Amino acid sequence: MDTRTFGQRLKERRVSQGMTQADLARKSATSSSSISHFENGRNDPSLATLQRLADCLSCSLNWLVLGNEGEETEKVQNIKYWASRIPEGQLKILENLARDLYISASNKD
């Protein structure tokens, strides 16, 4: 069970993605002070704000609020985050790498 609070998960995810509170505030149409209050447990965001935060952080609303998605899902979210920043012309390389890794792992079973 995930014993971290919403605020801890929010901060952890924001930092892991290299964002400041101001960056996240700007991307999620929220104020920096609100982000700080959310992370410190002083205020709770609205559902609409929660969804914008989850979208900006490339994670599910379920994980952000409840923390009950597994580690593998978070890893997949991280891969999606970084893949979304790869130039379009290089995405085929990533796709081929993922396929080759899958094939290699399947052959070991």
Task: Give structural notes.
The chain is mainly α and 109 residues long. The chain folds into two domains: 68 residues, lambda repressor-like DNA-binding domains (434 Repressor (Amino-terminal Domain)); 40 residues. Helix 2 crosses helix 3. The chain is elongated. 15% of the residues are buried. The model has no long low-confidence stretch (mean pLDDT 87).
Give a quick summary of the entry.
67% of the residues lie in helices and 0% in strands. The chain has helices at 6-16, 21-27, 32-39, 47-56, 61-66, 71-83, 91-108.
Sum up the structure in keywords:
109 residues; mainly alpha; 434 Repressor (Amino-terminal Domain); 2 domains; 7 helices; 67% helix; 0% strand
- Mean pLDDT metric: 87
Content-based structural category: mainly alpha
Continuous helix count: 7
Supply the CATH superfamily name of the largest domain. Answer: lambda repressor-like DNA-binding domains
Q: Characterize the biggest β-sheet.
A: none
CATH class of the largest domain: Mainly Alpha
Spans of at least 5 consecutive residues with low confidence: none
Number of domains: 2
What topology does this entry show?
Layout: H1 6-16, H2 21-27, H3 32-39, H4 47-56, H5 61-66, H6 71-83, H7 91-108
